[in-house]
């Protein structure tokens, strides 16, 4: 299988696009139309129009195809009912899988094609939204046979058949506000990111009550994903004033509300704020990029079946330690979190300690050994871990690129919980 992100031309274009001269000449900031709160969908009548009302105005045929999984499908009747009131006919496809294999995406696209919707509703966590986005491509463009070749340079021509609405049931990936879909090449055991501006959902509907059933472990993992998006985006050379504002505020919200949501899953205020923080961080990292947290985390997560949020979250301290010789932008994050020491060195140490304390508070190890990865398996997979991390598109947006040797050293530091001091 050919991957777009291994193309030398594209690998060269990504860093060029982050250059200040290029960004100053022309740049974009993309967001979906967002509805949030208890009545975000418009289920209660007699109040302001909700998401379903607005969506109904743009869908002439009113055929809604709900993409979900075996967990989030319990919310499908509620969502479908809101659209039925607006004249929609709906069909539910609930076979989405975690880290969706390309084969599953194709199955979804086949069902989608049979139903012929003019609205696709992604109802679930990040993997469900990844599935819906990738299947949307195949539904609109049946001539595309290799999803791994779809880069940001390809003009897809979406929306000739359907619009996309995203309704997240977890507070983590921010996929409802990004034009990114991550699918899995099962043969290669490799994550394949599809990045294309046309994949940005038209509508994001944030209903906090849908997250109330998340167990503490899932709350922790998804919350750390938000933190990695928010913090790493601020460090990205592609960041800008818009993304910095969102990333910094989302970071503060995670520190304030993730422990509350973790310890008390019925805290509606904490659930709402984490839901909003996830979308804010999603907007920030989609428009401003993320770096090594995701390059390293993607590689680790696929090799050892580590939850995505845990995989990227655990790498925040090690990535920032690697960045530090080239940038001091971490100071704005330290200041936002109340770390105000007399020297930059102490401010950095205080920031890293805060991150590690939060990770521990939500029951996650701060090193790879503590995640239960056997040492012999870690060593056996080192070659692929390094290769996939170095080739990952997120690596191209790191403020400090890694050599393969440096990448291996970072993995080893993260395994033992040692500081990255090179």
Describe this structure in words.
The protein has two domains: 187 residues, Rossmann fold (3-Layer(aba) Sandwich); 201 residues, Dehydroquinate synthase-like, alpha domain, CATH 1.20.1090. The radius of gyration is 21 Å and the shape is globular. 49% of the residues lie in helices and 10% in strands. Helix 7 runs parallel beside helix 9. The chain is of the alpha/beta class. Strand 6 and strand 7 form a beta hairpin.
Quick structural overview:
This protein is 49% helix and 10% strand. The chain has helices at residues 8-17, 20-25, 51-58, 76-84, 102-115, 126-140, 216-235, 241-263, 268-288, 292-304, 308-313, 316-323, 330-336, 344-361, 375-380, 382-391, 404-416, and strands at residues 33-36, 63-67, 89-93, 119-124, 163-168, 180-185, 190-195, 203-206.
Helices and strands, with pairings:
Elements: H1 8-17, H2 20-25, E1 33-36, H3 51-58, E2 63-67, H4 76-84, E3 89-93, H5 102-115, E4 119-124, H6 126-140, E5 163-168, E6 180-185, E7 190-195, E8 203-206, H7 216-235, H8 241-263, H9 268-288, H10 292-304, H11 308-313, H12 316-323, H13 330-336, H14 344-361, H15 375-380, H16 382-391, H17 404-416
Parallel strand pairs: 1-8, 2-3, 2-4, 4-5, 5-8
Antiparallel strand pairs: 6-7
Helix pairs in contact: 5-6, 7-8, 7-9, 8-9, 10-16, 13-14, 16-17
Keywords:
single chain; 422 residues; alpha/beta; Rossmann fold; Dehydroquinate synthase-like, alpha domain; 2 domains; six-stranded parallel β-sheet; two-stranded antiparallel ribbon; 10% strand
């Amino acid at each position: 299988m050919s991957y777009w992100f291994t193309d030398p031309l594209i690998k060269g274009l990504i860093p060029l696009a982050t250059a200040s001269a290029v960004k100053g000449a022309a740049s974009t900031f993309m967001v979906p139309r967002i509805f949030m709160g208890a009545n975000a969908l418009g289920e209660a009548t007699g109040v302001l129009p909700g998401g379903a009302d607005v969506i109904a105005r743009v869908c002439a045929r009113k055929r809604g195809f709900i993409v979900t999984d075996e967990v989030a499908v319990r919310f499908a009747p509620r969502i479908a009912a809101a659209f039925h009131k607006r004249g929609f006919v709906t069909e539910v496809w609930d076979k989405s899988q975690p880290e969706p294999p390309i084969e599953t995406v194709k199955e979804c696209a086949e069902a989608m094609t049979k139903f012929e919707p003019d609205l696709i509703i992604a109802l679930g966590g990040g993997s469900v939204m990844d599935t819906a986005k990738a299947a949307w491509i195949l539904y609109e463009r049946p001539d595309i046979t290799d999803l791994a070749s779809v880069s940001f340079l390809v003009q897809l021509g979406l929306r000739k058949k359907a619009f996309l609405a995203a309704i997240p049931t977890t507070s983590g990936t921010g996929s409802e506000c990004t034009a990114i879909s991550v699918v899995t090449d099962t043969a290669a055991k490799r994550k394949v990111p599809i990045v294309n501006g046309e994949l940005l959902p038209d509508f994001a509907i944030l209903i906090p009550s849908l997250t109330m059933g998340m167990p503490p472990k899932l709350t922790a993992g998804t919350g750390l994903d938000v933190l990695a998006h928010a913090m790493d985006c601020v460090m990205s050379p592609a960041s800008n004033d818009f993304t910095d504002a969102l990333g910094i505020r989302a970071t503060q919200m995670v520190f304030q509300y993730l422990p509350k949501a973790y310890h008390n899953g019925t805290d509606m205020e904490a659930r709402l704020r984490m839901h909003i923080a996830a979308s804010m961080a999603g907007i920030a990292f989609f428009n401003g990029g993320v770096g090594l947290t995701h390059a390293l985390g993607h590689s680790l997560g696929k090799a050892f079946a580590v939850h995505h949020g845990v995989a990227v979250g655990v790498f925040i301290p090690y990535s920032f330690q690697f960045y530090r010789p080239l940038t001091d932008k971490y100071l704005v994050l330290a200041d936002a979190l109340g770390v105000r020491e007399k020297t930059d060195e102490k401010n950095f140490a205080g920031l890293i300690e805060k991150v590690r304390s939060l990770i521990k508070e939500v029951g996650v190890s701060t090193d790879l050994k503590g995640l239960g990865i056997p040492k012999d398996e870690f060593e056996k997979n080192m070659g692929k871990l390094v290769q996939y991390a170095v080739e990952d598109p997120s690596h191209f947006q790191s403020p400090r690129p890694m050599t393969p040797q440096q990448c291996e050293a970072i993995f080893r530091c993260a395994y033992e919980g040692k500081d990255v001091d090179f």
